[in-house]
Each structure stands twice: as C-alpha cells, then as structure tokens.
Write a structure and sequence with these properties.
heterodimer; A: 289 residues; alpha/beta; 5-stranded mixed sheet; 4-stranded mixed sheet; 38% helix; B: 202 residues; 5-stranded mixed beta barrel; two-stranded antiparallel ribbon; 6 helices; 28% helix; globular
C-alpha cells in the first residue's frame, strides 16, 4: 500500500508539535541522574528547575522553550516504500499545518538572512535530509527543531592527518568557546571524516543518537568517555551558572576520509529536542521517540 | 529564596550575591529585538524619553508572545522565555545607565562593559532558565503596556505585571562580579588538566 501525502503531512506536523512540548525520556533520566550527583548547589537547583519545567510543559501541553527554532527533518526512505502523491511538498505542508493550528500561536523564528524578515516559513524550510534504507518497507522520520542559541557555537575545521589527541583538543576548544552560552547541559555530537558537509551531517546524526548506546567502534567509544569526562571537568554547569554537569553525552560518528580530515562539532541544548516515528507500507504509524 | 518586588533601590540590589536564587514581582519590561535595542539607544542619545519609565526597574531579554485580545479589550501575553543576552552586548551599557535599571536578565550573561555599567548604576543580571517557557509564564499577571507594535510580537517593548517570575540566579552582581567571567576563567585553567592524553589509563 503506498504512503500518501496526507500521512506524511500529518506525521511531520505531529512530530514537530511533540518535539516542542516534550523532552525525550532518555534526557529526563539524564537530568535526574545528574541532579543526584551534582556537587554544586546552584547547579543542582538548576537541574531540578529543568526537570520541573519539562514536566510543566508535558503535563499542560505547553512549550518547553519559546524558541521553536528552525525546523529540521531527517528522513530515511525504505526502498520497498511506494508513494502516492508528492513527498517534499507534503513535509512543507506539515510544517504549515502545525504553525496554523498551534494555540497559543508560535513565535516567528525563521529568518531571511538577507533581509532579517521573520516568519514561520522561508526558503528551503523545513531543512530536510534524505537517506535510503535498503529493503525496508517504511519511512523513518526524525524531527529536531533547531534553536540557534546552541547552533551558533557549532564549528568545523579541516585537519591534516590528525592524531586522536588533536581531534579531542579541538572538540574541547569548541565546547570551551560555547561555555555558558549554549544552555548546558549540552549534547555534543562529533563527525570525523568524509567531506566538510558530510562531517557536519554525521555530527548532527551523532547529536540525535539516543543516550546509552555503545559506540560500535572501540576507538570512538573510548574517545566519547574521555571527552564526556573532560567536558564535565570544565565547571560551566547547568545553564552555565556553575556545576559538574556541562554535558549529558558526547557522541561521535566517523566516515572514511582523505588525509585532510574534516572534524565537525554539533551541539544540542538541555531540552535535546528530538522526536522520531515510522510510517509503514501497511499504513501503520509507530512512534519511536 | 528572596522575593524581589519592583521598583528596587540600589541598596536592594547591592545585597544580592552571585549564585543566589530569586523571584521577581512587579512590572518587568522586555524585548528581544535588536532593532528595539537600537531604537532605545537612539532615543536616549537624542534625549527623547522612552515610552516606559524604567528607572529603578527591570528590562529583560524575555521573548514573549503577545497580541490584541480577540474581544478588543486590550492586550494579552500568552507565554515568555529568556533568550541569549550576549547578542545585545553593544547596547546594554548605555541602556543600563541611561534608563537607570536595577535588574537586567535573560540567559548567558553580558560582557565586561555591561558588568562595569551595572556596578556604576547599581544593577544585577538574572539568569532565567532557557527552556523554562511553561514554568516561567505562570508568573504573568497582566499586560501593563505595549509599545512599538509595528515590530513582531517578541520585539515589541512590552511591560508585564508579574508575580513571582523565576526562580532566577543572580549571575552578575552590582559589585563588578560576573559568574560567567569566573567560570570562563576557571574553565581555561581546568582545560589543560581535563585534556586526557590518549592511550593513558583513566
């Protein structure tokens, strides 16, 4: 059975709405875990206020953050999926639907970079990346509304045959620059290798990885542990007003590269907006997170 | 937790310490518009009184959805949330002293020039929770005034009557101390130790 445009529109609208009203379960658990061990009084109180804020939004159907960011979707298409009607336009329509139905209305955050005019839509909005999953009969959609209070601190650089130490030093430098600004505790996503744009993309995918999954590459699993420990020694703490909890996770992806190796560092703020669902060929919708 | 009732005196804010948590009640003025900040500075420089008297008051980087009420009975504010204050660094020293502010706030702090202006003026910076929209909005009581409605909602110069806005952390005090500067300095010192040489045991 083909997946219809209406199914895609409905789900992309729902995913966005869920993302701005509820923080992921793994993120709630990470905040609670951090609050139990945070040694700084201000940091511990701030973590508790964060949990209270997330709970208040979820139970009342309100927003966690009024900065709804710019809309991004990552879509993986099973190669056995058939479509009935437009796909790209259906996603654009989904975004328009959530903006139209939100009550109270959402603030205008999408900004024309040439004129600074703001709206709920704009050129190339939402930002959508597509990938394929061989043999699957479903469409896998992740929605991550991206507020740029963290985004402005993300960075990428090209290295020449970098050592692991150089890569780790660079990641720490980026986190150091973001300091108190990026609404910590943050999630740090690192992309190593590929081309410049590809490194940024896999860094973003690393940010969106659920917490607690072991990196299958042992070199990176060890690097993730070292970097998380190092970031949390910096002392910026929750909301950047001091404490042991500056990051909830460091996730690293890599791709084969050239001798010149791009390294990208993507960041997410404490509310870690991320929702994901699948539409199957039989019409079933499965919400994954 | 201290409960600050606006307007505030210099002595009121001089007693606040870094890291202390507070609630704020009374009239709080806000805008997150860069054009709004520019216009405020231009009016101050031209000697034109701002549409709201901010002396001994609060001006915050809070992003608020507000609109005309459907029944035509004035204006309503539906929710608010802080934004990053550092992008207004260039304008804040002039506004802090020119308006005679006692409280500024938002998230992520202000730079040294603002810290010094706050010390001269007798003013503190409050860090609100980014991602605190639903929680913080519970403090909204009513709209006291809305100016410059030609801007989009969150850019307008909006004054709300608040009851217990917060909790917020005193992150820059009235004596020239900034938690942000202290933490950045500490992080610079710690980063050398934090760098974990690859291949060495934990």
């Amino acid at each position: 059975m083909p997946i219809t445009s209406e199914q895609i529109t409905g789900l992309t609208a729902d995913l966005y709405e869920w993302a701005i009203k509820k923080i992921p379960e793994d993120t709630k658990a990470a905040l609670a875990g951090a609050a139990a061990v945070e040694s700084n009084d201000t940091g511990r109180q701030t973590l508790r206020i964060m949990m209270k804020s997330a709970d208040a939004a979820e139970t009342s159907g309100g927003l966690v953050c009024s900065d709804i960011g710019i809309p991004t979707y990552s879509i993986k298409i099973g190669t056995r999926v058939q479509f009935d009607g437009p796909v790209r336009q259906a996603i654009v329509d989904g975004l328009a639907r959530v903006m139209a139905r939100s009550d109270p209305p959402l603030l205008k955050m999408v900004t024309n970079p040439l004129t600074h005019e703001r709206g709920h839509a704009g050129k190339d909005m939402p930002i959508v990346s597509f990938d394929l999953i061989d043999d699957a009969d479903y469409l896998d959609i992740t929605c991550a509304p991206k507020a740029m209070g963290t985004g402005r601190w993300e960075a990428a650089e090209n290295f020449v045959y970098p050592t692991l130490q150089q890569i780790e030093d660079y990641v720490l430098d980026v986190v150091l620059r973001s300091g108190s600004q990026a609404c910590p505790p943050i999630v740090v996503g690192v992309g190593i290798g590929g081309t410049f744009d590809h490194a940024a993309r896999i860094a973003k995918e690393a940010v969106l990885r659920p917490f607690g999954l072991e990196n299958p590459e042992p070199i990176l699993a060890a690097m993730e542990q070292r970097l998380l420990k190092a970031v949390n020694q910096l002392g910026f703490g929750p909301m950047g007003t001091g404490g042991d909890t500056t990051a909830m996770a460091v996730h690293i992806n890599h791709s084969a590269s050239h001798g010149f190796v791009p390294v990208a560092v993507a960041l997410n703020c404490w509310i870690n907006r991320r929702t994901r669902a699948r539409i199957y060929g039989d019409g079933r919708v499965e919400r994954i997170e | 937790m201290k409960h600050l009732q606006l307007p505030l005196s210099r002595a009121d804010v001089e007693g606040l310490e870094l890291g202390e948590m507070v609630l704020v009640s009374g009239r709080v003025t806000m805008s997150i518009g860069l054009p709004t900040h520019q216009r405020m500075v231009e009016w101050l420089d031209a000697g034109t009184p701002l549409p709201v008297d901010l002396r001994d008051g609060a001006f915050m980087h809070l992003s608020c959805y507000n609109r005309e009420r459907e029944d035509g009975q004035g204006h309503e504010a539906l929710y608010l949330n802080p934004t990053t204050s550092t992008r207004y660094n260039a304008h804040m020293p002039r506004l802090i002293e020119g308006c005679g502010l006692r409280l500024v706030g938002g998230k992520a702090g202000l730079d040294r020039a603002s810290v010094e202006a706050m010390q001269r003026q007798g003013c503190v910076y409050l860090s609100f929770l980014g991602g605190g929209c639903t929680l913080l909005s519970r403090a909204i009581r009513s709209v006291a005034s809305v100016h410059w409605p030609e801007y989009i909602a969150q850019f307008r110069l909006l004054t709300l009557e608040m009851n217990g806005l917060g909790p917020a952390t005193v992150a820059i005090d009235a004596h020239g101390n900034s938690l942000y500067e202290n933490l950045a300095r500490q992080a610079q010192q710690r980063v050398q130790q934090a760098r974990h040489p690859v291949g060495t045991p934990d």
